[in-house]
Amino acid sequence: MKPGGSSGRLHALRFESQRFRLLTIVVGCFLISLTFLLSSRPDATVFSTLNPRESLEDARMPAMKMLHRSSSAGLTRDFHVDILPQQGDRDTHAHLQQSVDQTAEKTEWVKDTVIIQEVAGERSEEAEEAAERVTADSGDEAAPAVSSSFTVVEEKKKQQLPVKLQDAGEPARTPEQTVTSHSVDRRPLCDFSDFRTDICDFSGDVRMAANTSEFVVVVDPAAAAAASHKVRPYPRKGDATCMGRVTEITVRTTGDAAGAPRCTRAHGVPAVAFSIGGYTGNIFHDFSDVIVPLYNTVQRYRGGVQLVMANVASWWLVKYDKLLRELSRHAPIDLAKAGAAGEVHCFPSAVVSLRAHRELIIERERSLDGLATPDFTRFLRRALSLPRDAPTRLGDGTGRRPRLLVISRGRTRLLLNLDAVVRAAEEVGFEVVVNESDVGNSIEQVGKLINSCDALLGVHGAGLTNMMFLPPGATMVQVVPWGGLQWIARMDYGEPAAAMGLNYIQYEIAVAESSLKDKYPAGDEIFTNPTGLHKRGFAFMKQTLMDGQDITIDVTRFRPVLQQALHNLAAK
After folding, report:
1. Where is the domain boundary, 347, 363, 382?
2. What is the pLDDT of residues 494-547, one digit of tens each?
3. Is 414 helix (H, G, I), strand (E, B) or coil?
4. Are residues 358 and 458 in the same domain?
5. Are 273 and 308 in contact (CB under 8 A)?
6. Which phi and psi (to 5°) does residue 528 adopt?
7. Residue 175 to residue 109: CA distance in whole angstroms
8. Are residues 378 and 403 in the same domain?
9. How many other β-carbons are positioned within 10 Å of the β-carbon of residue 464?
10. Are 273 and 149 within 8 A, CB to CB?
11. Is the N or C terminus of the chain more exposed, i.e. has fewer CB atoms within 10 Å?
12. CB–CB of 302/176 below 8 Å?
């Protein structure tokens, strides 16, 4: 054996001994760290055996969000307290949706509840103060001759529901609910910050005492102070004349569960309460004040919602029956009739009033479900079985002339030379149909007539609301009377037309085309400074500038408008 071999083996043994000592030190450090971690956090879980859905449910903790809202005028300060996740928040669109699938008469019933747990000491002082201001800001309005209310009883039993992630690209929809018990420690939620409407949105064991028009929420008196809110559920906030025709509904909390109204009928679906008083009976207000906001409010339930109506007119229900049936699978409750019968209806949740945006418009960025005006017009075409989703195009090979519908008014803002306008439109290349919109007309018949046309022409007025039945890509022409009314014409019909995907043309008449020239001297302020007269109020504007004039269109001046309307229909 060579001396060098023995020396090499000795060197190798020393090297292996060093590696073993190093490994021993590393393992020892790891064990010491692990022991320290477990001793400092005994509830920590090192290895999880839960499936992904269970882990997601455990990780999901409900939160209370306080939104401080101020009015544009700075006169009021309201807080929106949101405990249940409000689906459709566009900034947090990848949210969680609870679902339990059950099959009953081809209907998917889904439980939708959130267990709210507030740990003592964790609620911030700011949240406490904000919640107190919610209570302080509500219930100040004097009760009118007609009043109504709802009751919510909150139960302690927790429900553990499986959780399903919703695709971020789809607007959130809340399906029909069958929750029979909730543990939501909060008072009714009311938001008074919107310029058009006040709205309350709350959940729990909700009891509607119809005879007092009241929704009452029974809460744990140790967890929440009593609160009371009064709401007129119609989106013409600030219009005293209109809102005086709307039943006031009370939403309040109580800690006396035994004294809460006893249910005569329990519903497994949410309630949405609103009024069809106000200015309904005029097609513009029927849609802008009720049907469009109603769609925006209840579409998330996919028919699984109970409509509760105040100030019901039977003819209105008959006229819009098809649309109401598409929005809810349940016959609406007439609040007055239910009250006369002493009924108490109980729900898992309720919304009092409707989510209204601008006139005839649903703004996607404000909609809780990411809805927009085109979604509503598609809903109309589907509900009324309107066949056309696109207008006739020039040069499409069919040889058909585009169809123009002229709305003829019967009482005010008359188009005095209607025959001359019809001839000019036919000379340009339109097939012309003349129709006088009437409140008694069947909505299905009107919808089918308008949908068969490619352009619509009319003087500023409620009849232009029918443009919503036109196929997208059609053209709407509004004739604006004299008097600086361009802004209201654009707000009521111009902006909605664009939101519906229509081409919009606004024709503003000259003094020579107005009958006002025969009523006032040439130098009168009505001609020299008509917008200055707007300071006298809308009633004066309506009486003098809208209902007080008729129109004789200058056909030569108007012909380019007709040509533009036809050009809009050129094949693309």
Report:
1. 382
2. 999 999 999 999 999 999 999 999 999 999 999 999 999 999 999 999 999 999
3. coil
4. no
5. yes
6. -85, -30
7. 7
8. no
9. 27
10. no
11. N
12. yes
